[in-house]
Amino acid sequence: MNHPATKPQTGWLARWTSLHTAWLLFAPPAVLVGLRWVLQLSPDRLPGTPALPLAPVSVPSGWVELFWPLALAALVLLAGGWLLRRLGGRRAASLLGLLWVLLWLGGSAALLQRHLNEQGLFLRDAAAPGEAPRPGAVLAQVLSSQFKPPSLRSMGGTALVLQVPGLPEPHRLLLNEPQAAQIKRGDTLALAFSPGRFRGLFVIDWRVVQPAATLPAVSASPSLIIKP
Fold first, then answer.
1. In 3-state terms, what secondary structure has residue 62?
2. Strand (E) or helix (H) holding 191
3. Phi, psi of 29 (to 5 degrees)
4. How many CA atoms lie within 13 A of 218 on its CB side?
5. Closest to 195 (Cα-Cα) out of 119, 124, 107
6. DSSP secondary structure string, 27-45?
7. Pairwise CA distance, residues 71 & 59, whole Å
8. In sequence order, what are the beta bridge partners of 175?
């Protein structure tokens, strides 16, 4: 039985070589790695410690939130198989290459957005023991305190879960100062906040206080919290 001849490729597909494939595979990740290196280098030239992000504690509320990554991965595989059968190998590969580039460019854009969001926010100098909280600080209750070892993504430190007035759900805060290791569950922290340029809250000052002695000097009004 004679098989029909394969239709020759035309246009840019005909001029595609293994060198173009190598550029497609390695150039987008190289852009993200280079951007990360530049962004990490720039704060090292500025005095001060970057402000600490205050992030909500995410707790899965059902089986959908637990298994959606697996469902998404299965959907991607099914879509890839359908495109391969529908468009053919070369056309499907070109579409996957475009998605590959967009994925890494999106990651680079998110990295730059996060840097700009935190630009200019610095943590104030650590307070002396017994020093009164700054005016306008907000009292936060420590719900849990746990040591977090250093990793490739973080320097580690004391991971706190806080209940902050004005915020509906608990929030987490990572402190890497040595004195933070003494914070325990039930303690009260006086926090000063600053909003990010685009979103989120950042802690620019913190200290452990004794609620009975300092409540008159510290306001815990929810109006002081800037909504993320």
1. coil
2. strand 188-195
3. -65, -35
4. 25
5. 119
6. HHHHHHHHHHHHHHHHHHT
7. 19
8. 158
Q: Which two tokens stand for residue 62?
A: 């059902």
> pTM to 2 decimals?
0.67
What share of the chain in percent tops pLDDT 70? 66
Q: Which of 122, 129, 214 is nearest to 178 (CA)?
A: 129
Mean pLDDT (whole number) for 12-22:
67
Compute the distance between CA of residue 112 and CA of residue 36 in angstroms, rounded to an integer. Answer: 8
Task: For 195, list phi and psi in degrees, rounded to 5.
Answer: -75, 150
- The residue among 52, 193, 51 whose CA lies nearest residue 136 is 193
Half-sphere exposure of 202 (CA within 13 A, CB side): 20
- Residue pair 57/169 in contact by the 8 Å Cβ criterion: yes
**CA–CA distances in Å: residue 194 to residues 43, 51, 58, 62:** 18, 9, 22, 33
Q: Are 218 and 209 in contact (CB under 8 A)?
A: yes
Contacts made by residues 84-92, CB under 8 angstroms, sequence distance 24+: 90/9, 90/13
Pairing type for strands 52-56 and 138-148 reads unpaired
pLDDT (0 to 100) of residue 218: 42
Q: 46 in helix, strand or coil?
A: coil
| Segment 168-200, tens digit of pLDDT | 889 999 988 888 888 899 899 999 888 888 888
